[in-house]
Amino acid sequence: MLTVPFSSGFGDLTEWQRTAYFGTFIGTAIATGLLMAPTSYHRIRFRQGDKERMLQTANRFAIVGIAFLALSLGGAVFLTADLVFGLGFALGMAAAILALLAWAWFGLPLHRRVRDGSGDTGAERDG
């Protein structure tokens, strides 16, 4: 993602494609930051008597980070498919990828959580 603007063909992109690229780039940066945040939080707060809050915060960071990762993957698929096959195909592929990721990463776990009747976050069991 970092080298794409410096490639020779980047200037040939439409304004819409450049906007899609930049949105994907920013989404990737946000996803990376949020997915790394639990590690940093844990390192700084380790053995400070804050385990429950640390687990809840890390869980939220990870879930939002995963959502931004899904959006970024959808953006990357969209931009690549648009360049190779055109806008219609790109929209369909991006929608399919986002639907698959939404189901696998959120829908299935939430469905099983509801089905199993476990409304807790798991933190109570983990200690």
Structure description:
This protein is mainly alpha-helical. The chain has one domain. Helices cover 79% and strands 0% of the residues. Helix 1 (15-45) packs antiparallel against helix 2 (51-85) and helix 2 packs antiparallel against helix 3.
**Secondary structure: helix percent:** over 70%
Computed structural class: mainly alpha
Largest sheet: none
Mean pLDDT: 88
Counting DSSP E segments of at least 2 residues, the number of strands comes to 0
Give the CA-based shape: flat
Beta-strand portion reads under 5%
Summarize the helix and strand pattern as letters.
HHHH
Secondary structure tally, helices? 4
**What is the distance, rounded to the nearest whole angstrom, between the alpha carbons of the first and last residues?**
40 Å
Radius of gyration: 19 Å
Number of domains: 1
Unreliable stretches? none
